[in-house]
Design goal:
The chain is mostly helical. It contains 3 helices and no strands. Among the domains are: about 20-70; about 75-125.
Length: about 150
């Protein structure tokens, strides 16, 4: 059996019962505890590395995002976009709370809050209210000059 670089080494042969299940002994418990500690260290190191990468990406993206928002938005538009983002975050949190709610009174309160926030989000997103916008009048398509016949 070949040993790989990241795989833990099993130095203790685990004794088996007649049924094929592993016997827990002081030796096997010690080996399993060591494997667990190594796995936790690897996972912690991977998590630290992942967080560092995310922070580096955020540092690179923050100036570009701020510049784009500053160029394209007037102060009122910035406020609207920030409030819209906050409202959408609140709606997501309320959706999670609704799934976790158990009593009917709590569910109703959360549904009422979702309805109010949905109305606010719709207005901040500048979507028209249902029924307030009429479809445009159908106009005949203009013929383009390249498809017109010869000019004889």
């Amino acid at each position: 059996m070949e040993a790989t670089a990241g795989a833990p080494q099993n130095t203790v042969e685990t004794p088996l019962k007649a049924t094929g299940r592993t016997l827990f002994t002081a030796e096997t418990a010690k080996v399993m505890a060591q494997r667990s500690i190594e796995a936790r260290k690897r996972n912690a190191a991977a998590e630290i590395e992942r967080i560092a990468q995310l922070e580096a990406q955020a540092k690179l993206a923050a100036p570009l995002l701020a510049q784009a928002v500053a160029i394209t938005c007037v102060p009122d538009e910035q406020y609207r976009l920030l409030r819209l983002a906050r409202t959408r975050e609140q709606l997501e949190q309320l959706d999670k709370d609704l799934e976790a709610a158990e009593d009917e009174k709590g569910k109703k309160a959360i549904c009422d809050a979702i309805a109010r926030l949905s109305d606010v989000e719709q207005r901040l997103a500048m979507r028209p209210l249902p029924g307030s916008r009429r479809p445009g009048r159908e106009r005949p398509a203009k013929e383009s000059p390249s498809t017109a016949g010869p000019l004889d």
